[in-house]
Amino acid sequence: MGLLDQIAEGVINGDDEQVAQLTQQVIEQNRPPKQILDVGLIAGMNIVGQRFKAHEIFLPDVLLAAKAMYAGMDLLKPLLIAQGIPSVGRVVIGTVRGDLHDIGKNLVGIMLKGAGFDVIDLGRDVAPEEMVRAAKEQDAAVIGMSALLTTTMPAMGEVVQLLKQEKLDGKIKTIVGGAPVSKDFAHGIGADAYGFDAANAVDRVRQLVGA
Amino acid sequence: MREMETLSNRLASGAVLLVDGATGTMLLERGLEPGKAPESFTLSHPEVLEDIARQYVSAGADIVGTNTFGASPMRLELYGLADRAEELNREAVATVRRAAAGRAYVAGSVGPSGAMLTPHGDTDPRDVYENFRSQMQWLADAGVDCVCVETMLDLTEATLAVQAAKDVSPHTPVTATMTFDETPRGFFTVMGVSVEAAAAGLADAGADAVGSNCGSGIEVMIRIAEEFRRVSDLPIIIQPNAGLPEIEGGKAVYSETPEFTADRARLLIDAGVRIIGGCCGTTPDHTRAVREMVNEHQGAA
Ligand code: B1M
Predict the structure, then answer these.
(1) Which of A12, A123, B99, B146 pairs as cysteine with B54 (C-beta 3.0–4.6 A)?
(2) Reported pTM
């Protein structure tokens, strides 16, 4: 197994020490940081996401994998910045008003960062007005919203409406996700995209910004 | 009014006991804004809580829960209410006690801390124990008849809560329930706890009854109950949702009617369940329908 595969394996096993050590090793071998990220860290995290969806593993494994991925990302970040790899686009993300669930949103955030997006995380329980205001101020291309409660999903529609009122729809795109959210729901409220998991969210956001 | 028999005696007698249904979803109906701490209602609208508790008592609940599911200091911290924790627990118990008026037992409800424990999370289990211990002490001081540790996902966290309750008040009965999802390999909590592991771990920690609440409607709960029966000798407690929520006109609605619930609750009793209640979406009408069924069932037996 190549070192990058071993990094992916380390992420899957949630072994942060191994991931950090191997990442350091491949950095010293002058492997391109982007390759380490994509073929090592993100490839591992994608498999973790798939296994979680299939109920093969549970939340603790996902959280440990995310920690391991961070351990590698922390080492890569300065290199990616130094190489001046341009941001693919700016995304404002948050869990919607009234909702305190942030584990899924955080995973989406990590994966977007990994994919080269500039991510501004507004945290949880974020009011629709706040999402729109932050996106305008930060000149973001996309607003990403997460909801885990059936009762908080309607707040996503409010954001879409606010953007329409301010004639920003089309300029600032929206993507929604979270366990109770469906493609139909996303379509119904007029969101531009729906992401069923973190990896899929990255693909959809890429499409939204045409990257 | 006659002195109530102790809850421990009632449990030991083999009777089927009814716990009340939902509080949280009822509060949403009565003006709680989604995302506000349900516990904030204890101080702002005690009359609403007393009314809801009264409705459950009138409907025939033997045990009525307090509005303290999220009233542990760590959980309240998420809403910036941690400094009101003691007051919120004390007042919530007092409110239900007024409504129960000696006709029902008062159960201190205790839900998850909201923190993720090490190693996968960042919170030290000792801090989680202290968190629960504070809440258990306030509930005990306020005079609850029993404690319901509920909607737990992490077995370590659940056992810490049960232990804290028993350390504070060894003779107060404690029920402990976890929330399971159906997977291709059987029932597990999202943290990966099986029914068997839950039954064993909660019993070890000192729980007097074990089972499941929230997360599913009654039909799935019947199967979860059967699994508990296979692996545990303790009384089983089951509190189903009134189905899973669906969005209609911007509001969450639950589809299982009181009649449907009462009909299926019969199967819960057949599966050996001894404490039946409700979770999200259930109402005093559900309690009343189950009460009638249980009365008939026990009359017939
Ligand atoms: C921007 O674009 C995108 C694209 C994709 C996106 C996206 C955004 N966001 C997510 N995705 C997607 O990508 C991610 C990675 O694959 C995925 O994200 P997910 O978030 O789906 O998946 C995560 C990786 C893992 N999943 C999770 O993190 C959620 C797990 C469960 C167990 C859960 C947890 C952990 C918690 N909870 Co709560 N909780 C439950 C959940 C039950 C379960 N078995 O799933 C659920 C969501 N909770 C529920 C409830 C009711 C509640 N919870 C509550 C509280 C909590 C805790 C605080 C204890 C904790 C949250 C801790 C935290 N920091 O997030 C309360 C609400 C608090 C609030 N106001 O938000 C409370 C109301 C409980 C109560 N009675 O107080 C239920 C919701 C029912 C419903 N449909 O409305 C629930 C399904 C449990 C149940 N079985 O009933 C995808 O959905």
Answers:
(1) B99
(2) 0.91
Q: What tokens does B37 get? A: 């701490």
Residues of B with Cβ-Cβ distance to A61 under 8 angstroms: 120, 192
Please state, in angstroms and rounded to a whole number, the distance separating the CA atoms of residues B268 and A57.
30
Task: Tell me the chain A residues in contact with residue B36 when contact means C-beta distances shorter than 8 Å.
Answer: 98
CA neighbor of B245 nearest in space, from A13, A148, A47, A40? A148
Interface residue A55 vs chain B (CB under 8 A)? yes
CB atoms closer than 10 angstroms to residue B47: 8
Q: Could you name the CATH architecture of A3-82? A: Orthogonal Bundle (1.10)
pLDDT in tens, A19-54: 999 999 999 999 999 899 999 999 999 999 999 989
Q: What b-and-e string marks burial along B191-208, b requiring 16 or more CB atoms within 10 Å of the CB?
A: bbbbbeebbebbbebebb
Rounded to 5 degrees, φ, ψ at A86 are -70, 145
Domains of chain B: 7-300 (3.20.20.330)
* CB A160 within 8 Å of CB A190: yes
Fold of A90-209: Rossmann fold (3.40.50)
CB contact under 8 A, B245 and A150: yes
Cβ of residue A14 closer than 8 Å to a chain B Cβ: yes
Q: Tens digit of pLDDT for each residue in A53-66?
A: 899 999 999 999 99
Pairing of strands B105-110, B63-65: parallel
**Quick check: A153 pLDDT over 50?**
yes
- Are A104 and A179 a contacting pair, CB within 8 Å? yes
For residue A12, the distance in angstroms to the closest alpha carbon of chain B comes to 13
Min distance A119 CA to chain B CA atoms (Å): 23
Q: What pLDDT is attached to residue B301?
A: 52
- Specify the domain boundaries for CATH 1.10.1240.10 within chain A: 3-82
Neighbour tally for A187: CB within 10 Å: 12
- Residue nearest to ligand 1 atom 63, measured at CA: A101
Task: Report residue B216: phi and psi, to 5°.
Answer: -145, 165
Verify whether the Cβ–Cβ distance B191 to A59 is below 8 Å: yes
Q: Does B246 touch chain A (CB under 8 A)?
A: yes
Which residue in B35, B185, B252 is closest to A125 by CB distance? Answer: B35
